[in-house]
Amino acid sequence: MNSEMYAEVDTALKKFRPFLVRDGGDYELIEVTPDGIVKIRLLGACETCPSSDMTLKMGIELTLSEKVMGFKEVVQVFLKGSLCRFCLSWER
Fold first, then answer.
1. Contacts of 91 (CB under 8 A, 6+ apart)
2. Of the residues 32, 47, 63, 84, which has the fewest C-beta atoms closer than 10 A?
């Protein structure tokens, strides 16, 4: 993990967080890979919201592409056992 890129992503996401919290949601930053992939888990209302894809692509991904050099893509991560059709399983 590139700690500098992680810090940049974390800072950019913190600026986006109030929009999620306002709607009863939040996020957890899981990982920033060396090749610029950001893995996050949406929480609260955002976790099951039908608009979560829009939040990821038009909100979070757009924000990161403007603020973080080397950023490529955001991927939503789900806890193993969550009810989702398109899940990347992840366990702690």
1. 79, 80
2. 84
Measured CA to CA, the distance from residue 30 to residue 49 in angstroms comes to 19
Element (H, E) at 30: strand 25-32
* Cα 75 from chain centroid (whole Å): 6
Domains and CATH numbers, the chain: 3-90 (3.30.300.130)
Give the max Cα distance, the chain. Answer: 34
In the chain, the amino acid numbered 30 is: I
Pairing relation of β-strands 37-44 and 73-76?
parallel
